[in-house]
Amino acid sequence: MVNIQMMQGSGPNPLTVNGRVYTCPVNGVVSVPDFDATVLESNGWVRTALHGSGVTTGRPTTGLFKGYEYFDSTLGINVLWDGKTWRSTVTGAAV
Known about the structure:
Order of helices and strands: EEEEHEEEEE
Distance between the termini: 24 Å
Structural class: mainly beta
Helix content: under 10%
Number of strands: 9
Strand content: 25-35%
Low-confidence stretches: none
Oligomer: single chain
Strand order of the largest sheet: 6-7-8-9
């Protein structure tokens, strides 16, 4: 299971999905299982990264491709795999 970081967007808040209630603080994010993220997204919530989220030490090491995006919850930012290293989507620096 992959976790996805979601923001409320234009969707209802809180929102119940598969028996779980998701509440997102203003300008905040919540980590949800990928199968719930799809339902939240169809209800107006927004993904913060395309390929999941987690701590820095939990970044994927296999199946990577140039442009692979991941929300690093340790750093609090999206990072992008450039084919050789992870880079901040904010500054472009290696992280």
